Amino acid sequence: MLDSMDLRLLAALQKDAHLTAQQLGEMLHLSTSQAGRRRQRLEAEGYITGYAARLDPLKLGLHVQGFIQVHLGTHGPDQSAGFARMVNSRPEITSAWTMTGEADYLLHVYCADLPALNRLLHEVILPHPAVARVQSQIVMDQLKRDAPLPT
Predict the structure, then answer these.
(1) Within-domain flag for 11
(2) 78 Cα distance to chain centroid
(3) In the chain, is it the N or the C terminus that has fewer CB atoms within a 10 Å radius of its CB?
(4) Residues 85-99: tens digit of each pLDDT
(5) Crossing angle of the two packed helices 21-28 and 32-44, in degrees rounded to 10
(6) Residue 87 sits in the same domain as residue 31
(7) Residue 68, number of CB atoms within 10 A of its CB
(8) Does 127 lie in the same domain as 93?
(9) What pTM does this model have?
(10) CATH of the domain at 20
(11) Are 135 and 127 in contact (CB under 8 A)?
């Protein structure tokens, strides 16, 4: 069970995962050891699943961001597992969700340019035996970056 101090600690870490136990303690009016123990407990209980650096895609040469809706032609467990393996093998696909509604999957992708996106679509995704069709959208501008979860 989370208390208000846990929620404040989680909110602070989502904004800056580099905060030390001392800094967290100062922010939350706790001792360094109390803040450190709370953080360790939240990690152990799975509330904090990891820490990662956010990279600038443009500086890495990834100039095209897109979303691809995938519609499967067949929906058996073997087809779904094969599609999942393909998705997990492709670094351009940074996130993937199974969906309700018309599309079966929604893929978030980053590519160097439009020809790279075209190759991903026509040489990787569309030839997959389970895929019936795709619909892609290219991101023109991102109004809001992936934000911290509400706490």
Answers:
(1) yes
(2) 25
(3) N
(4) 999 999 999 999 999
(5) 110
(6) no
(7) 20
(8) yes
(9) 0.87
(10) 1.10.10
(11) no
